[in-house]
Design brief:
By secondary structure, the protein is α+β, with helices and mostly antiparallel strands. About 30% of the residues lie in helices and about 25% in strands. The protein starts with a helix and ends with a strand.
Length: about 290
């Protein structure tokens, strides 16, 4: 593979991700053939390059993800060289679409609620990313790459931290290596827990998150059963004894739990909602 071949292959992959056709070979057919592709590289050459393309030495593999770990590292290094982490960022998960049969079954999973339903599993879940407030992705990693560390002291500390914030919460901690203290992090209910909020407060990071009902411990906030009897817009909140954290229960179609160590319930805003019994839209309170 020459350098020019590699650039042409990458160009085809980028082009194919923007100009979608049902099958890869359609880019070279007489009816759908696109000159941008056909004049650049042949179908057989693309197949040959994809079969022979390696980013790591297979002999040295220890973890399942090692085959593409150098590519992930290159992506992170390049993004880090052109983007400075912002003060407001979010941590999320993302599927990598794949329907082939050559990859190990342990790496693939089916998630019907995701836009990309079938793809690589990458150990326990998907690819975890950090995005800034302008939607620029600047850190990408996998659960396997977090564990791929020969430093036994770091690994021991990591396992101790997992006991505090669980595996899903540890993903957030792992992705904050180059994020400045004082940054405001947003996460969804997959990662969030009151333990993570407490831990992030101790580290000096701001965190705002949506919580699952089974991750609030013995917090005496109004129960979901009680809130269902209340009108939409009803809310209840509790503040920690040190005044550093707040958890809010808000009744929409169902109870929504939100926790933060940065913001409180003020200001109370108004949201438009369709009220089924009244058969019209109305405004409800939202902390």
């Amino acid at each position: 593979m020459t350098k020019l071949d590699f650039y042409r292959l990458i160009g085809f992959l980028f082009y194919g991700s923007l100009v979608r056709l049902p099958c890869k070979s359609d880019y070279w057919t007489a009816t759908c053939g696109l000159e941008t592709v056909t004049k650049s590289i042949t179908r057989d050459r693309v197949d040959e390059l994809l079969r022979s393309l390696h980013f790591n030495d297979n002999v040295l593999q220890v973890h399942v993800i090692d085959k593409i770990q150098p590519l992930i590292n290159l992506f992170n290094d390049q993004c880090g060289s052109i983007v400075n982490p912002e003060k407001i960022i979010s941590v999320d998960e993302q599927m990598v679409g794949y329907k082939g049969k050559s990859a190990p079954k342990s790496l693939k999973q089916y998630m019907p609620q995701k836009p990309t339903q079938r793809g690589f599993k990458f150990c326990t879940n998907n690819i975890f990313i950090i995005t800034s407030s302008n939607n620029y992705q600047f850190i990408c990693s996998t659960r396997s790459s977090f564990q791929n560390d020969d430093n036994q002291e770091k690994l021991a500390k990591r396992y101790d931290d997992i006991k505090l914030v669980d595996k899903s919460g540890m993903v957030v901690i792992d992705l904050l290596d180059n994020v400045p203290k004082g940054s405001h992090i947003f996460v969804d209910n997959y990662f969030a827990s009151l333990k993570l909020l407490d831990y992030m407060t101790a580290l000096g990071y701001g965190l705002t998150c949506i919580l699952r009902s089974n991750r609030i411990g013995n917090c005496p906030i109004e129960s979901e059963k009680s809130m269902l009897k209340q009108p939409r817009g009803h809310y209840d909140y509790l503040v920690s004894s040190d005044k550093k954290m707040i958890i809010v229960g808000w009744q929409d179609n169902r109870r929504v739990l939100i926790a933060s160590n940065v913001i409180g319930i003020e200001p109370i805003t108004q949201l438009s909602r369709w009220i089924k019994k009244q058969r019209k839209k109305n405004y409800i309170d939202a902390p």
